[in-house]
Amino acid sequence: MMDYKGCKCASCHKVLKEGDDIVICPECGAPYHRECYAAEGRCVFSAKHGKGFEYVPPEAKPDVNANGPICPVCHAQNPPDTLFCERCGQPMRGGVPPQAAQSSPQYAEPGMSGTGMPGGFGGPGAQYATGDVMTQLHLAKEYDGISTQDWMKYIGNSAPYYLYQFQRMDESGRKTSFCWSALFIPEFYFFYRKMWGWGALALAVSLIVSIPSLLSLMAALGIATALPLSASALSTLITVCGLLNWGVRIASCLFGFYLFRQSAARRMRAMKDDSTDDDRYRTELERRGGPSRVAVVLVGVLLLVCSFAFSAWIGPDRLMSAFYLY
């Protein structure tokens, strides 16, 4: 039988030590603390069972979390500089001393939010840790079958806000929320969050609905167009496109978080299926997750190029005429 001492628990990622109560997954051989396996309720690699997957323990490393803070919710020990619990995602706010975990964490009464208001977002029976607002966000262990810890790694710095929105969706049963950046600049928001398809669609709509306004400008400057539209028809078309533009923006605002959640969950599941072990999967989450500032810059450059190209085509004299006209 393989000696798993010195390896990491597949759930809490703490090094297994002499005297620990260790259990092994009968399907793949992944090691756990008994209490961790009981808390998970299943093997974290269960999605890979039956596909020839066999757990291969990584090279044993020293436990760098020995002096790190202990989560007040799940009692997992974390790296010294952690901001969120690596096991359950609970905000740590710079760390909780290890000795603090020996006393039971305090919670608000069932049905109360962390601020003491009735009907908090946890709903009846929910418990919230006391403290400042961040530590009162008692998040679920997983969303869409993906652990909160993995969501934290994938989303990046904005993870608490996004997970809070996910929590509200699950508790209300609705797919809508308010994403203000998606309201004002939907194409930039979708590309920033690596939702390439939705970003391309929002960008295409933004360009298409601007065409009637450009045609109106060209008509005012005396530039002939291939579309035989009367002034009244063009005015109606501008109104319709304006309404369509705002309809897309409002829909993006209401469903922005939900669309991100669905897109991110698909990508994370694909990464997990392609990863040979848990450590590599989490490395891929950090490498391929987070926002894309490069995509935002490229979209901005594309719009600037289109604007400059149109201005050059009109010509400086007509451009000045348009400036005085409007």
TrEMBL record:
Keywords: Membrane, Transmembrane, Transmembrane helix. The keyword Membrane applies. Pfam families: Prok-RING_1. InterPro entries: RING_finger_1_prok (IPR039522). The chain crosses the membrane at residues 200-227, 233-260, 294-314. This is DUF2628 domain-containing protein. It comes from Ruthenibacterium lactatiformans. The lineage of its organism: Bacteria, Bacillati, Bacillota, Clostridia, Eubacteriales.
